[in-house]
């Protein structure tokens, strides 16, 4: 007896939409491995770039977010949110 498929194009579209990050234009500045500051685009696993100092990381994140009219979330070394910047229009 053949197995009935539950998959439909509509279901596939819903799954694809839910897999996308909610805010793909949001950069996070956070303390990473080795006490270095990482800039990570939300939804990514790897850092976009790593810096020795927090001010360098923040400046880079601002430049990136400005290009795409996004946001920057700056975290404290504890992981808590320190500042939230919107660079949209």
Summary?
28% of the residues lie in helices and 28% in strands. It contains two helices and five strands.
Q: Helix- and strand-based class? A: alpha+beta
The N- to C-terminal Cα distance equals 59 Å
Strand order of the largest sheet: 3-2-1-4-5
Q: Which sequence of SSEs, written as H and E, runs from N to C? A: HEEEHEE
Q: Could you tell me the radius of gyration in angstroms? A: 18 Å
What is the domain tally?
1
What is the general shape?
Answer: globular
Mean pLDDT: 82
**Major pleated sheet:** 5 strands, mixed
Total of helices:
2
Give the uncertain stretches in residue-range form. none
Helicity level:
25-40%
Assembly context of the chains: single chain
> Which range does the strand content fall in?
25-35%
Strand segment count: 5
What does this molecule look like?
There is one protein chain. The chain has 89 residues and is an alpha+beta fold. 28% of the residues lie in helices and 28% in strands. It has one domain. It has helices spanning 9-19, 54-67, and strands spanning 26-31, 37-41, 49-51, 71-75, 81-86. Strands 3-2-1-4-5 form a five-stranded mixed β-sheet, with helices on one face. A hairpin with a 5-residue loop joins β1 (26-31) and β2 (37-41). The longest helix is centred in the C-terminal third of the chain and has 14 residues, at 54-67. This is DUF2188 domain-containing protein. InterPro entries: DUF2188 (IPR018691).
């Amino acid at each position: 007896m053949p197995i009935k498929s539950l998959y439909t194009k509509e279901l596939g579209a819903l799954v694809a939409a839910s897999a996308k990050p909610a805010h793909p234009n949001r950069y996070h500045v956070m303390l990473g491995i080795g006490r270095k500051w990482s800039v990570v685009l939300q939804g990514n696993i790897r850092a976009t770039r790593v810096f020795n100092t927090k001010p360098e990381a923040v400046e880079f994140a601002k430049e990136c977010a400005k290009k795409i009219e996004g946001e920057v979330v700056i975290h404290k070394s504890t992981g808590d949110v320190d500042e939230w910047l919107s660079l949209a229009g």
